[in-house]
Specification:
By secondary structure, the protein is of the alpha/beta class. Helix content is 32%, strand content 26%. β4, α1 and β5 (55-57) form a beta-alpha-beta unit.
């Protein structure tokens, strides 16, 4: 069995504990002959996937009554992986969601790290600087990179910490974000664990 997470620009395949990344623009689903269980936000690629009977859309297994109708499929998958906890998915956007007893409690969406830095540049070219992930968020900044980092990260980190534990962090910027938490569980395969749990539930049903 192959698991597949399809974004707008990349395709991540997960099989036998290994993840392989491809460009969404050049990826050909016909090259895979085993059963593939996937989630996708890529509208153009979705049209081609429906032509292949070995590709199975996991949207059909989701209990949509647990979530809100416009919630992203990738957010739902990481929530499915966690029975109790706070899930931070640090990708193009930073999503934060809370699960308690397997029930979705709600969440929020913030700009991703790259999007936040690009937003500052649009305010002023003088703010075209990278965040400093070694900065102490408890202190007032005395230079521009630190000021940008504290201004964006401090409110976000404080909000997340108030939501409780355990805290799971996933996504491309997971390790950068995790520097600001002392007890975070970094799990870059969380989406695939959620997909696996959903498939197992579907089989039992």
């Amino acid at each position: 069995m192959i698991l597949c997470d399809i974004g707008n620009t990349s395709v991540d395949l997960f099989s036998e504990g290994k993840c392989t990344k491809f460009s969404a623009e050049s990826f050909d689903p016909a090259t895979l002959h085993d059963d593939v269980y996937y989630v996708s936000v890529n509208v153009s690629l979705n049209k081609h996937l429906r032509e292949h009977t070995n590709w199975h859309d996991l949207r059909e297994l989701i209990d949509w009554g647990k979530y809100y109708p416009t919630m992203g499929i990738d957010r739902i998958m990481v929530c499915e992986a966690v029975e109790d906890g706070v899930i931070v998915d640090a990708g193009s956007a930073i999503t934060v969601d809370v699960m308690r007893g397997g029930v979705y409690q709600g969440g929020f969406i913030s700009l991703g790290l790259r999007a936040a830095q690009e937003a500052y540049v649009r305010v002023s070219p003088a703010l075209d600087m990278s965040f400093n992930f070694e900065v102490d968020l408890a202190k007032m900044a005395k230079n521009t990179p630190d000021a940008l980092t504290v201004g964006f990260m401090a409110p976000l980190i404080e909000k997340i910490e108030r939501l409780g534990k355990p805290l799971y962090i996933t996504g491309g910027d997971a390790r950068l974000i995790s520097r600001f938490f002392s007890e975070a569980i970094v799990d870059e395969e969380l989406i695939f664990k959620g997909m696996t749990k959903l498939i197992e539930k579907g089989v039992k049903c």
